[in-house]
């Protein structure tokens, strides 16, 4: 669309519709490019509007658009771990990771640039948004563990796992999205089980959580499969127990 | 010291000595405050020199000083994981983590600000330095696993653990350095063992690494202790194997 020939759609949108149309265009661009490689002209072109119109809605320019897009992406990410409290824990985590990894897959370049940091659009506000997502994800996971007052070790374990999921996501993007996403998801669930069981050895609250969670797991589920694959590897180390 | 009354030390230092004196003063300040809270005047005062002298050595001002201090800190951090290839793997990791956590302890506020991001001094150069430390640490750990050509899963596992160690360090600082550093170290070593064993269930190369590493572990060592503490927790879950 050119300013000379506005289509009816150009005029028909309400303020809120226009704002969300611009935001959607920005999010799409920021998802697949580093923030440095996205200009306001790109956003205007992608939304089929003029650059002045973008400025009218986002007077703060690219920085404001980036933060608005990030806030919208953060809301989506926070919902990833909002899974019904039904079924075995590993199954719930699998569903949550399916959504999380689909998000990473869809927002690959932007996700990488955001978490790697050092970008011109990064501020204490953008890092606070990212940290908010981490906290929300941790709260959801702790909710699935049915703990109302999680102690320091349990909270730390969950945050450590979230840190390792982030690291894995970044490397997964670097490695051309290998291994396949389903494999990565199952592996990350197993890592969670392993980290939680390890902490259970040092923390009575986590031990109770693990005992309760294991009763709901099935032999043909994630934990059963993990045990079956790991036992042959550690079976020769009888000198340790 | 005031500019009016320079002490002999002010003139006696060589260019290199003066530079490293300024760097040391800067590093000390950046270690305990967020970069936003450190001014060039602070550095000049801490080093007992005038502000113009700091500018003579670091014409790029605070940004250049910060990057130089960060580079010097990065070198120290990279050496943390450079541990002689002797003794059980968990013992080597313990020694490396002792040094790493001592660094985190000594540079608490700066470490937090750096890894949290969003600071005005953060650029693609500073994030590249941080990423270089992560890569170097991963190389050292892979070296201790005696693997010359680590596959994707093994590399990912090591980087995931490094991601979780970073997350743990940040939370440890937030929580007033609790649990005590020795306990945190042992716990992180156990988390590494758990992550590695989990990956071993899915990756033949990692399985070989685990088998070889376990033969060198002792019953009264980290792995033996982990097994003894964890078995009672998972003992009731016989329905899973």
TrEMBL record, chains A, B:
Family annotation (Gene3D superfamilies): Tetracycline Repressor, domain 2
Record keywords: DNA-binding, Transcription, Transcription regulation
MF GO annotations: DNA-binding transcription factor activity; transcription cis-regulatory region binding
Domain HTH tetR-type per the UniProt entry, residue ranges: 16-76
Pfam hit, one: TetR_C_46
Keyword set includes Protease: no
Annotation: DNA-binding region: 39-58
Protein name: TetR/AcrR family transcriptional regulator
Species the sequence originates in: Streptomyces acidicola
């Amino acid at each position: 669309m050119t300013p000379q020939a506005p289509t009816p759609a150009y005029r028909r949108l309400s303020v809120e519709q226009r704002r969300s149309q611009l935001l959607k265009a920005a999010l799409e661009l920021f998802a697949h490019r580093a923030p440095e490689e996205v200009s306001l002209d790109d956003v205007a072109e992608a939304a089929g509007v003029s650059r002045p119109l973008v400025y009218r809605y986002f007077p703060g320019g690219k920085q404001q658009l980036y933060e608005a897009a990030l806030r919208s992406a953060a809301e989506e990410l926070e919902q990833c771990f909002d899974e019904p409290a039904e079924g075995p824990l590993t199954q719930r985590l699998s569903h949550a990771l399916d959504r999380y990894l689909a998000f990473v897959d869809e927002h690959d370049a932007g996700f990488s640039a955001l978490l790697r940091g050092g970008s011109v659009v990064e501020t204490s506000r953008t890092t606070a948004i990212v940290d908010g997502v981490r906290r929300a994800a941790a709260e959801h996971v702790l909710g699935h563990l049915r703990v109302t007052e999680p102690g320091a070790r349990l909270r730390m374990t969950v945050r450590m796992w979230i840190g390792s999921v982030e690291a894995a996501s970044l490397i997964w993007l670097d490695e051309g999205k290998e291994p396949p996403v389903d494999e990565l998801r199952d592996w990350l669930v197993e890592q969670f089980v392993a980290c939680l069981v390890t902490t259970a050895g040092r923390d009575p609250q986590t031990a109770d959580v693990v005992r309760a969670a294991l009763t709901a797991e099935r032999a043909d589920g994630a934990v059963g499969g993990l045990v079956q694959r790991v036992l042959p590897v550690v079976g020769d180390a009888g000198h340790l127990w």
